[in-house]
Amino acid sequence: MPSALKRLLRHLALDVSPLRDSRDYRLLFGSGVITMFGTMISTVAVPYQMKQLTDSYVAVGLVSLAEFVPMVVCGLWGGAIADALDRRKIIVMSELGLMVTSAALMVNSMLPSPQTWVLYVIGAVSTGIGCLQRPSLEAVIQQVVKHDHQAAAAVLSSLRWNFGAIVAPALGGLMITAWGVTSAYVIDTLSFLLSMLLLWRVSSLPPAADAAPASLRSLVEGMRYAVSRKDLVGTYLVDMAAMIFAMATALFPFIAAELKAPQALGLLYSASAVGALIASLTGRWTARVRRHGLGVIVAAALWGVAVALTALAPNIWVIVVCIALAGAADMISGIFRMTMWNQTIPPELRGRLAGIELLSYASGPMLGNARAGMMAELGGFRFSLGAGGVLCVAAVLGLAAALPDFRRYDATTDEHALAAKARREAAATAEAPA
To answer: How far is residue 307's CA from residue 293's CA, in Å, rounded to a whole number?
Structure first.
């Protein structure tokens, strides 16, 4: 084999160093695979059930909008408690709460007349619990994975997500059409139970001795730090703009119905993850990139272009390909953003900043799906997709021009990245004799 080809394959090969070196990361990774599998099945089931009950674009889009307020409140508070309490306890207790909400959806689906308000209320409660948990899940990676392996951990985390996002929606679409939505909620409930068995074995992850107690003051402190870092602000705003203007998963049940391809519903939900999986499996090259801000900008713009092209697709299969291309671009953006966060944010602030990050990458899809539903109500799904993609590209380029610190970020020269690396190396040196 030519040496050049060998080097190319080595750069594209998956780096599994975090899995090899950290027992706790392996347990968290395994738990994430199981949980993601069940959650993604329910992600297909909820809008499908709402469409069955209402046959309304707006009603389906409002499922995401109902989750917005609990996401904001619980995401911020979840960040505060992630810095103040044992992160393992937060993760395990939240997993239990999520299992209960999934069981509630299962019971509602078994009623003679399932209630639409239950989908809204339980969806909001589930989102709130998930947002209490997510900052701890994000912050703990910094604790259990070495500094130089953070990029590899970002790729592996995306790979885990993509595995569930490909297999689960496709399987969920088949299950729902064959056996009804109840089967999806049963699988989701069981997945949380299995996940808790792994999470229970994770080592205790107590806060720092001088950790600030969870309070409004600590939240404000985290926000002030985030606002002071224009590079971080760029990661939040660019992703939010991309999702608000171009996210459109709420349209998938309608696209499948209008194109007379109901059997392709699961494929529509899986397509983005297929592209993202390919990006993850070949993502070792991302560890060599140092201009992460510019990488986020380019990837987010390509996401918008792919969504705009989806509006022009003549059939369901071309739409699937366009969605896959969008998913690949979004995954590359996510890898660069996660690497910036974990390599530059001080550990005593990591939980609170993870809560703010959650607002950026979770609020965008919620608001985007509401936007997509309303625009589709006015002009159809093709108008919603095309206009959203164009607006996304315009917004991303505008933010890139307005945030030069973000655009010029370089991991090899950034003062925050260098300080964080030095801090981790000093801690490792101090622990070596013990």
So the answer is: 22
Query: What is the distance between the alpha carbons of residues 39 and 134, in angstroms, rounded to a whole number?
Result: 14
Amino acid at 90: I
Asked if 250 and 61 touch (Cβ cutoff 8 Å), the reply is: yes
For residue 346, what are the CA distances in angstroms to 100, 147, 200?
34, 12, 27
- Where b means 16+ CB within 10 Å and e means fewer, 376-385 reads beeebbbebb
Determine the Cα–Cα distance for residues 134 and 157; give it in Å rounded to an integer.
13
DSSP 168-223: HHHHHHHHHHHH-HHHHHHHHHHHHHHHHHHHTTSPP-PPPTTPPPSSHHHHHHHH
**Integer Cα distance of 348 and 353 in angstroms:** 10
Residue 328 contacts residue 278 (beta carbons within 8 Å): yes
What is the separation of C-alpha 227 from the centre of its chain, rounded to a whole number of angstroms? 22
pLDDT tens-digit series, residues 200-213: 998 887 877 667 77
Most distant pair of Cα atoms in the chain: their distance: 67
Q: Residue 363: CB partners within 8 Å, gap ≥ 6?
A: 68, 71, 72, 240, 243
What number of residues does the chain have? Answer: 434
Task: Report the C-alpha gap between 165 and 33 in whole angstroms.
Answer: 10
Gap between the Cα atoms of 135 and 202, Å rounded: 17
Q: What is the pTM of this model?
A: 0.72
Q: Kindly report, residue by residue over 363-382, the tens digit of the pLDDT.
A: 788 788 889 988 988 888 89
Q: Rounded to whole angstroms, how far apart are CA atoms 54 and 119?
A: 12
